[in-house]
Each structure stands twice: as structure tokens, then as C-alpha cells.
Specification:
This protein is α/β, with parallel strands linked by helices and 607 residues long. Helix content is 62%, strand content 13%.
Amino acid sequence: MSSSAPSPTIAARAGTFVQVVRRVFRLAAPYFNSEEEKWRARLMFAGIVALNLAYVYALVLFNQWYGRFYDALQNKDATVFWREIRVFAVLAFFNIAIQVLKFYVTQMLQLRWRAWMTRNYLGRWMADRAFYHLELARYAHADGATPDNPDQRIQEDMQMFTNATMTLSMDLMNAVVTLLSFIGILWGLSGTFDLSLGGSTYQIAGSMVWLALVYCVIGTAITHFIGRPLIGLNFRQQRFEADFRHHLVRVREYSEAIALDRGETVERGQLDVRFGAVLRNYLQLIKQQKNLVTFTAMFGQASLIFPFIVSAPRFFSGAIQLGGLMQISSAFDKVQESLSWFVANYDRVAVWRATTDRLISFDDAMRAHAAREDALQREDGAAALDTTGLTVALPNGTQLLAGAALAVRPGDSVLLQGPSGSGKSTLFRTFAGIWPFASGKVQAPADAVFMPQRPYLPDGKLREALTYPHPAAGFSDDQLRQALVDALLPDLVNRLDDSDAWSQKLSGGEQQRLAIARVLLKKPAWLFADEVTSALDAPAEAVLYQRLADTVRAGGGAMVSIAHRPAVGDFHGQRWTLVPQEESAGGGARYRLDTAAAAQPTAGWST
């Protein structure tokens, strides 16, 4: 996993505020325009807006209440004092009800938005093997231009994006509405300010409004200067955390192999490297946040006393009473709080913006994948396997095979061999239609099963691992048990309903036999097997290859295998060999496929 800083491509995305808003809108619009959710989402959003407006209205009522209440205290008017206590109780109940309802509706909208967005991105990620192709592209481009850790983006970033977008947008709307509501109140309470300049005196109306504006503009500029590095630091922090978590999962997944190799020291070193990157970046983040917190704390504390200092001369001169002073303080606080929204939320905005950038890069990658035009023409459902002008390359563009014309007919049995790294498994992936770095034409047979050397075994019940990817309900218990017996796994026949991590529980040979049991259970006509008996002993290999051959022959198809063991050749009538060749000056293919070699059919396979 790469732990480099964001690439220039990523950094270039950090543009103007308008660009950020456009990116957020691009991520948010599909949900609010979706056929299944748009009306509910829009109604809930409108409800939240209405509740926010009601909340601001309650603040205005409280501001008016401050004037009456503190005047009653100054005047020692007990009747007005107790009346205002009752008014306060009503206002407090109204305010509490608004906040509780706003919280609930906001959380429900965030939940539904996240659920829809997660399902949408999961669907796109899993569609047309995008999850596989994006991983290939990421390893082919080490510059960081391809998104990393899609698991984090789907699980964590979407939760952060939906929550932060709703919270920040509603807070910003509150700030704007509060500003519009209180700026008039503060203007009316401010009176005029006499400014002597050049021997002349100027009267400035709404002095407190202008002071609040100057105060907040200066504070915002300083905050942006101090906090600007937080965006990049938060972006990197999410990436380093994901890299560290990814390697932890790999250690757990390959725990047995690491233990057998005594690789604990190496893995600990790798984990220390990744965790070191987490800590170093987090330390920089802490330092920048410390500076930001220092300034915002000073800014906030100064704003508490600032309106009293400015209004004190008018209060002591008798121009305003205590109630008026408290109203000015409350109104100034709301105005400067609204104008200082950016100051107070800079840290959260930085995290949200980094999350948005990560999701945009993920979204861009999936859009590019969906819009790509495959160079490989593929036709499924043919009676045989035929290729024309087939060229297979590595992700970095290196050609392994060029212009190959291959054919496998029903009844054929082909053994594919060649040096390690020559592209045997890659050719199988091309036959299967999952390799994106190929061109030419492939006509593929129907009812074909491709078996990798290391099978995937989902966690859960054994019956589900045995029938994967088909539902277990489609097979009877007798069929499942017979498949296990035929695959030389009699000890598992009574464990169909046991749940376990089978890729960790079973040995390599048992995993391969379980994969063979799948084939014996499903009885495909065509079988492409990639080193599927490499972990088995010779007697077991012979028995199971015979059963695979019988199964395919009964289905009227063909079998194509990759294997290094000579004994496997006894079950195949043809031999294809990838032969190294010198690359031409123009950079030709590394290998050519020799299909001339043939063997006499054996007892294991008859044509």
C-alpha cells in the first residue's frame, strides 16, 4: 500500500469554494433526484429547513425577552419578573421541542442518505467487475492517481460525508438566517458612533454592526491562514489510517502463512512503518490544530467582552438600561457568531473537504470504468472457445501474447504450460472476460467454470461455501454430502451447518478439494482449471482429476488446465506451451503460444 502524499492530480482538485460546492452537489444530487427516495428526502430536508428557521425565530424571541427581563431586574419590578419567568418557560419548551425534532429528522435523513449512497456505490463498485479492475489499475499506477482503499470510502467516508454535509449545511443556513434576523436588531440598538477625523466629526449609524463585521473579517482571514494546511493533512491522515488498517487485515488473513514463515518480525516492521506514517502525520495535524484552537479560543473569549466594552459608555451615561445592554450583547454575539461561522468550523470543514475529495476521486474512477470501451470483443454462449487476433498485456502495457488464434472444441482436453510469470493465469482471465488489458475477439462457451489456484471461501455455513456463488437452497443435503465425499472430504459431510472462517480453518489441500467439490456438485460442461491440485498429493490428484474429467466429458464440453506436474498431462490430449521469444525493437510480445504439441488421449480422457 502506498503511503505517499496526495498526488498532484489530487492536489489540483483543491480549488475554489465554488468548485468545492460543485463537487458536493455532484455527490449529493443523485440521492435527492433518485426515483425511490427523492420525495421523502426533499420533504425531510424541507422539514429540517423549517425547523432551523423556527429555531432562529426562537433566538429572536429570547433576545427580546432579555431586554424585558433585565429591565425588570434593574427596576426591581417583581410583577414583570415573574411574568417573564413564565414566558421563559414557554420559550424554553418551544426551543427544546424544536431542537429534539430537528435532531431526529436530521439523523433519519442522514441515515437514509447514507444507506442509499452506500447501496448505490456498492452496486457500481461490484458491477462489471469494477472492484477488480480498479485494483489492477491502482497497482499499475503507483503515482496515487487511482483511488486507494475503496472499503474505507464506502464504509467510513460516506458516513462522514453525509453527516458532515447535513450538519455543516444546516449550520451555515442557521448562520445566514441568524445574521439576517439579528443584524437589524443590532443596528437599531447600536445608536450612532462619533468618529473624529481630520478635524471633522462623522456620525456612523449601526456602529456595532460595522465593528462586528471588521472583527469577523480579520478573524476569518487569520483563521484561514493558520488552518489552511489542515485540508491536506486530513486527506493524508485518512489515507495513512486506511493503509495501516489494510495491513492489519492482511496479517489476520495470512496469519498461518506468516506464522509458518516466522515472519512476525517482518510484519511487525511493516506495521510499524505504516503506523509511524499515521503518527507523524497526526503529530503535524495536532500542531496545526493547536495553533488553530489557540486563535479561535482567543477570538471567542474576546467576543464575549467586546460588546460590553464598546457599549459601556452609553450604559454608564444612562443612554441605555441594563436590558438594552444585554440585548446588544446577545445580538452582537449572534451576529459575530454568524459572521464567524467559518472561524468556528474551519477544522470540521477541512475534514469534510478531504472526505469529499476522496469520494470524488472514487466516483471519477468508477465513472471512467463505466465509460470505458473494451478493446476485447467478447461473445458468450458459443459452442466452443475461439479467439481471433488475441493480444494480452500486463497493466503496465507490456505485451505477453500478440495476435493469437486459439480454438478448443467440445471433447478437447488442453494442458497449458510455460515458465512462471509467462501469463498462463492471465490468459485464463482473458478467456473468463475479466482481464481489461486485452484486445482481439473471444467467443466463449456457455456453462463454463473457472477455478483459480486459491479458491475463495466465504465465511459462514459450510453449505454456503460449498455452493458459492449459488444459493445453498438450490441443492439437497444428499447432493452436498455426495460432492464432499467425491472430493475426498468425508470428514466434512456432517458439518454442513457449521459456521466458520473456512479459508483459515481448512488447509490448502482441503480448500482445493472443497473447490473441486463445487465443480462436482454443479457439473459444468466446460472447465478451466488453474493449478487446482497443486496442494494435493499425487494419489488424490489422480483421483480428483479423473472425476473432473468424467464430469466435463458427461457434460459434452472440454477441459483446459494449467499445471506444472507431469502427471496432470495424462488427463489431457493437447498441450499448449508459452514459449519465450526475443522482443523486437518495437517492443513485441514476450511469448508465443505453441499449440502444435499433442499427446495421445489417455484412459483419463477419451475423445
